[in-house]
Amino acid sequence: MRAGWDWLKGPEPWTPRMLAGDLVLAGVIALLGLGVEELDNGSVQRMAGSAAAVVLLTLARRRLPATTLIVASAVSPFLPGSFLITILLGWSAGRRIVGVGRALTAFTVAFLAAVGFGVVQAWSDQRPVLVIVFSTLMFLAMTVMPGLASRYWSQRRTLLQALQERNGQLMRERVMVAGQARLRERQRIAQDMHDSLGHQLALIAVHTGALEVDPQLTERQREAVGVLRQASVAAMHELREVVGILRDGVEAPVPAEEAQPAARGVAGIAGIVEAARSAGTDVRMAVSGRPRPLVAACDHAAYRIVQEALTNAYKHASGAPIAVELRYEDDSLVVEIANGPAAGPGVGAVVSGGQGLTGLRERARLVGGMVHAGGTEGGGFRVAGVLPYGAEPAGVEDIADDFGQQAQAQAQGFALAPPPMDWAAVDRELAVRGRSRVGGVAMGCGIAVAAVVLLVIVIGAGVVLLVGSAGSAMISQADYDKVQVGESEEAVRKKLPDGDSFMTDGLDRKGPERPAGTDCLALLSSDDSGLTTNTVFRFCFKDGKLVDKQAYESEQ
Q1: How far is CA 420 from CA 158, 176, 178, 182, 552, in A?
Q2: Which of 32, 43, 167, 510 has the fewest CB neighbours in a 10 Å radius?
Q3: Do the Cβ atoms of 264 and 298 come closer than 8 Å?
Q4: Would you tell me how many other CB atoms lie within 10 Å of the CB of residue 458?
Q5: 30, 57 in Cβ contact below 8 A?
């Protein structure tokens, strides 16, 4: 909304443009009101009061929509020139009053004020039922219908604005989620580099360290092997720096891995054990129990546990025997890697990122398992992991990378948040103007039909009132001739209608001068077909008798 009150942001400040627009609008309504006052033979004071009321109510409608509506409904019976302002105030109140209850209360009070003061103003005419019916119909047509149309328009516009803001917020969140996905991918790459390349470089360092002390090598060969060992150590330093860069600022846990090739699962453990044996390391492997398949994440976690444990053994217990054991228990796979104390000095300045065992524990936790690492009684070191066979990951609070994954998780019953918004529907609603225009036309047609129905009701009520008034205000020439001067007033009035009709207002004062001190009854001729004049029958009474009757022509 652009002026007065925004349902999302509250009242808006006044601007010169708003003030000028309100003054122009008030001037137009005031001029139309002067025409209404002229038709009603209003005095100059009443015309001035109507114009002042229109201006004040128009200027105050933005800040006090309910108050101005009630005040206008109360004063309009006494100031007919301000009656048209109720259309504007009904539209303004429907648009700006926040809350259905408040709006209903305001319109109800305004209705009671319009009907109540209308009855008070017309009480001298002794036609309260007619005033109530007419006031109700006019209030529905002139105030309620604009209020309903304005409220629908305002709610629709507010909803579209909220959808646009929500759309922008969700798009920003989507960008953030994509950034988090990239950060998790960096973490995954860093973990893989640490596990895979670190293992290979450690193995190279072990091989070159063993060759460097081989007495069968010449001095030149030892020098070349030393260069290789230094190169592998430098490569491990560079790997540590790269891993540190990739892990910088990443606090999210590493998500569960996708399906890995068989070489990176339990089936690949025999390969890395054989590679260690070929390098001269005493590694023994034992498998017990009936082998059972694991889910991909658990399978890869078992491979990583063995790989990381062997790498640590190369670094910190060079030459010590290593035992690798896989035990297939009833509900889980137990992976255990134990090494004895170091048989001699290590491979030199080994590099450790300090994240190996931490990464193993995180991998096992994400798949519902656990990892234990600690020293043994003989001075060695043991790493043991317990991994479930086919259980779903426990304790994982992974965030879907995109909204498609969120929808899939919702369908599977894992999503904790509400289902994602149908962006296609929102785009069609906000971007395709044709659909909005069709909806607006449909609403406009509905309001127009309702207004036409109310107008038909008003016209029908007017026709009924006109017919009733005609019956109370018209007689034929024959009826006029039957009445004789000198008859009693009571007898004459029994023969004639009561003349209580707007059609006969002021007719007794027109035509020839009335006899002094008489009370006259003026009726119209039912036989008259003139377009510009009416035949008036006037009966004048004095002292309970008919003292004069006259027929004359009166202009319409």
Answers
A1: 21, 16, 16, 22, 83
A2: 43
A3: no
A4: 16
A5: no
The distance between the two most distant Cα atoms of the chain, rounded to a whole number of Å, is 163
Q: Which of 492, 532, 539, 479 is nearest to 514 (CA)?
A: 539
CA dihedral angle for residue 158, residue 161, residue 162, residue 163, rounded to 10 degrees: 120
The DSSP-derived string for 255-286 is PPP----GGGSGGGHHHHHHHHHHTT--EEEE
Q: Are 128 and 122 in contact (CB under 8 A)?
A: yes
What is the rounded average pLDDT of the residues 261-274? 79
Question: CA geometry: angle at 240 spanning 236 and 242, to 5°?
Answer: 115
The pair of three-digit structure tokens given for residue 77, joined into one six-digit string: 């019976």
Q: CA-CA distance, 286 to 323, in Å (whole number)?
A: 8
* Nearest of 196, 187, 182 to residue 300 by alpha carbon: 196
Question: pTM of the prediction?
Answer: 0.41
- Helix 433-473 vs helix 423-431: angle between axes, to the nearest 10 degrees? 60
Tell me which residue of 332, 334, 393 sits closest to 367, measured CA to CA: 393
Whether 187 contacts 246, CB under 8 Å: yes
Going by pLDDT thresholds of 50, 70 and 90, the confidence category of residue 228 is confident
Per-residue DSSP letter, 37: H
Instruction: Report yes or no: 69 and 89 within 8 Å, Cβ to Cβ.
Output: yes
pLDDT tens track for 85-136: 888 888 888 888 877 788 888 888 988 888 888 888 777 665 677 778 778 8
* d(C-alpha 57, C-alpha 89), whole Å: 8
Question: For residue range 296-309, what is the model confidence (pLDDT) as tens digits?
Answer: 778 888 888 998 88
The token pair that represents 54 in the structure block: 């229109």
**Mean pLDDT along residues 485-496:** 88
Other CB atoms within a 10 A radius of the CB of residue 462 amount to 12
16, with CB counted inside 10 A (0-12, 13-18, 19+), is exposed
Alpha carbon 274 to chain centroid distance?
62
Distance between start and end Cα atoms, the chain: 50
Calculate helix-pair angle for 433-473, 128-139, nearest 10 degrees: 160
